[in-house]
């Protein structure tokens, strides 16, 4: 926020971004342009079938080398066996992803449209309506939850070109409903339902990940527990024609895992892979799962927490992220089954609360967090 204005207000002036948003020459997106590559796409349903070994190995490779993957498929064949001659029907792109709900993540695409629509309608509200949910107190103190921007720690901190609505969604009894928008009228119901549906998909993914590491199948699910902190972050990236700013600066997530619903039409997310920035392609209604630093620690470095960034675009862009973290008082450390003479412990034991305190400070400054836990 510059001059008391959120990014959306600054963008509406049509002027160039203020200096506080301008990256140094060697940090700008153009200094390290992104390439196009095959970001892993996993058929989640196939992982639970008797012939799912190949898909499981594909997932293992994605988690070890990329640290992220999308749940979805690019093509789908429908076989009609009720007629004498078997017909193979190619579905349209729109119909493809309607059927995909039964193949990928099981969340109806019409409902995912509702999630994105509710978020978009909130950010389209007049400023005075959105400010009712501000993350700044009357005295200007920053609060983690609410509408606004990320925390500003220093006067020379380079800011990100985005506005966000950040809300705790689980545990349910800790929700600050006074910060949950009542306009649009369905926002609260949609967010609650999305919280429930996304949690089920995440737990399926965590179950498979534990199996891949030959841990007890519910290991990661149990680590989260019933009181895990789950935050929803609604990101709004106003259009910006310059390549000197970031939507979100390069960072890794402090979570166990992040479920991300990307914009259906506008690209922007990029991941650092083998020293190169790679564009994450658009697959409408797919969910992208991104491992966080907590998972890298619990897996003793076997699974990776990728560095990623968001670049600006000449079109506005939105995304919805769900961050899943261990309970604040729970200790974060490598799973015992993943530490032995051949693979010694790589990370120290620390309280999740202490780890996240460091994370939010380093995130604001564009610094890595997992290093603070390394031995």
What does this molecule look like?
The protein is of the alpha+beta class and 375 residues long. It has a single domain (23-39, 127-373), classed as Jelly Rolls. 26% of the residues lie in helices and 21% in strands. The strands form four sheets. An eight-stranded mixed β-sheet has the order 2-3-13-10-15-8-7-6. Strands 1-12-11-14-9 form a five-stranded mixed β-sheet, with no helix packed on it. Strands 4-5 form a two-stranded antiparallel ribbon. Helix 2 (53-65) links the parallel strand 2 (41-42) and strand 3. The chain is globular. It starts with 6 loop residues before the first helix and ends in an 11-residue tail after the last helix. 38% of the residues are buried. Mean pLDDT is 88; it is low at 73-103.
